[in-house]
Structure formats: C-alpha cells, structure tokens
Task: structure prediction
Amino acid sequence: MVMTTSRKMMTIGIFVSSVQKELNEERAAIRDYIRTDPLLQIYFEPFLFEDLPALDRKPDELYLDEVDRCTIYLGIFGNEYGSENRQGFSPTELEFKRATEKSKYRLILVKGKDESKRHPKMQKLISRATPHVVRRHFSTIDELKKEVYAALVQFLCDSKIISSTPFDESACPRATLKDISDEKVAWFIPIAKRERSFPLNPGTPTEQVLKHLDLLEGAQPTNAAILLFGVKPQKFIPTAEIKCMHYHGTVVAKPIPSHQIFTGTLFDQTDQATDFILSKINRIVPPRDSAPVSETKYEIPKEVIQEAVVNAVAHRDYTSAASVQVSVFSDRIEVRNPGSLPPDLTFEDLKIKHSSRPRNHRIALPLYLAHYIEKIGYGTIQMTTGCRDAGLPEPEFSQSGGEFVVTLWRDWLTESAMAELGLTERQMRAVRFVKEKGRIGNSEYQDLVKISKRNASRDLSELVEKEIFEKKGIHGTGVHYILGKRAKKGPIGP
Result:
C-alpha cells in the first residue's frame, strides 16, 4: 500500500475499554503499541483509565467524560463482565453504551471463541454490540495488535486522513511493457471473450488490452499487470508464489513427502497448485455401467479446490513477505494467504450472500474474465455449496496470526474406515445418507432402515458419541443430525 498523509497532523483519542483485572496485559500492550508504531503514533493517542492520576471526582464520571472526549471506542472483551453498579451494569457496558449514544466509531476485539467460559452478561453485551460495530476475534497479543493496526489504518483511509493507492493499482517499479508477455495476453483475450463476452478481439495490441483492464499507470505496468501477464513476475515481486506441501498424516511432520514451489503468472500458479492438490487426493471411480468417457471426479470437487486457491491469490496481501501456502493432509487441505478479512466482515458472513470486498480489484477482474473466478464476491459461497453438495463438511474460515486460512475437509469416511470404527450396516447407511443429503432426522432414519424409533435413537446416539454425527435442534421435528467433529478430524496421527 502506498500512502500519502495530510499535512495537518491531528491527534485522535482512543478510549480503551475492558475489564481491567482480566485484560490488564492486553490493555497495556495496545497502549504501548499505538504510542510506538511509526504510523499510529502520529495520529492516535490511547486512553487507559488507570493512567489517570488520583482525583476527587467519582470514577464513573471520569471515564464517561473520557468516552465523550475520544473519537474511537476500542472495546477488548474477554470472559469476565466486571464489577456491577446498583443497576447491575459494569463499567465496560456503561462505556460501550455511552459510545453508542454519542455515535463514536466503535471497534470490538473479542478474546477467544469458547462461549461456555464467558459470563452470561458479557455474552449478551457481545451479542448486542455485534450488529452495529466492527468486531474481530483474537487469541494472542500479537493477533490483537495486528487487528488493531488494520482497523485503525482503515479508519484513517475511510476518514480521508490518509489516502492510499492499493498495491495492485500502483506502478511496478522499474517495470516496462517489455516485461509483459504478449503471449500471455494473446492467450487471455479469446478465453475472456468466450467466457465473459470480453469486447476486445484477438490480435489487439498488448498495450491496448492493458489500458482496457486499467493495468497501466501512465505508460508503466502496474503490479497487477506484472502478476497477471508478466514474463517473470517474481523478478519484481519475489513472494508472489504458492508453496505446496503434502503430508501423509494430520500434522506437519518432516521429512515432507512432497514439496513444490510454483511461480509464474497468477494464472500459472493457480493451475499448478490446483493440479498438485488433485494429484494428492482420491479420485472417485465411476461405475462400470457409466459412459465410456466420463469426467474424472475427486473426493473434493475440483471447482472447490480451484476456488480456494484463486481466492488466496486474488485476496492476499502482496506487501507481505509471506507467500500463499497449501498443505495437503490425510484429513484436510489448508490454503493460507497473507492478509485478513475486512473489519466489517465475519467468518459467518462468508457462507451467505455478502458484499464484495476484493483486496486487489485489478487482479480480481481479469481472473473473473478468464473464468478462474465464477462470480466476484461469491467464492466462499461457492466453496460452501460445493462441499455441501458433495456430502462433505462445510469449509472452515479462520485467521491465524497474519494469515487467512481456508480448510477443506476430505472425505475420510470410506467404507473401510466406517467398518474399522465398528459401524453397523444400518449406521453406514445413515452416514451415506447424510453425505448425500446433508442431514438426517430420526424419522428419516427409521424409514431408511426400517427400525423402531427406540433403535433409531440408539444408533444415532452412538454416532454422536463417536463424533461422526453432530446433533442439531432441541426437541421434536427440529432435531436432526449432520456430519460431526470426528468426520472433520479424520484419522488420528501421521
């Protein structure tokens, strides 16, 4: 990101709100981080109540006055709710309420994801805050710092205090049109024309194509142009690569059986990484009575795998020193890319219709035109639907430090695996049914295998105990079963 700052410097107050005793270390770390970071210290001044000298005024009056004076409310929410006043409210809740009343910019960082450990009133506070504020999860102080940094920089950009030129739109230093492959551009045009009705015709000069795609800054190729159509993209952007590893077990262990690094254009990398994954997972053998020539199918649909890979290269942070990393395990595939979600999106949002937030607009469009992306903004939905339709657990989206992680769970519940787990033929039929339909209820299971309700309940309970099924719903017809935790974990050990 190329940034230009306004000449007039200003101090933006940040009120740090949390249960002091529980999150004392986190509060101090954020204060010190903001005051020492080269960029943040220019614009922001954090306020911690414990830094105030002893005064005669009541504490509740003082901290609410400070909320009024600050521009940003930064809430760090953990498990504890804090001491309560006569009305049953903690200082943290009163501070959030005051910030809401005053229409302050509110940023909520939630520590941990285990809701069972959280005080009921803190659970309610988080739930009440969620629809209206920027909310992110963190586990470590380093993750907390990264989330705060990203949110505060976004605040500066949104407030027009600093202006930024995205990496993909910036001119690639020292690059010229000679560094663009005419052959790659010529390959792109007919595909884009066939797939997305691209208006330019084969034979159109390279420079004209790049201008049409907004991939030139003046006469100079942008970083996006180099990544998409460069002769040697890694000459200019060395970390623009995909590292692929294959492990026999479920954990990272050396020696690595297979390890490859793919370079070239983003189109090349996507194709090579997708082929690498497909070569390491199981193929579904078609029945003998099928057509003589039938499309090869895989345990995870090829479209889902390609979507995960292209999502990583399209949305990664190219200013990071890290690369995209693909790991194939016996139970799952992990695709990691440097970067994180926009502050106003949650992992749950990714599985439903949501607004598109591509980090790299100039990269995403050509990938879409060449049909590497089905529809901009729908990649994660396509992955979720594709896995569900294939009878697989839904993909998981998570943040690990500075990396966004997509986990695709493999179908390890083979016939032999189910037999080894001691499943009866009835229970195997239930598993097959759920893999095809996505869920099963008690009455459906009764009809499927022709047994009593009592025996059906016992069979299903055993599958839940083995963590092959997960029970959903509370009572009556709302109760049903889906693939559970064990189905996601797969075989134990390397």
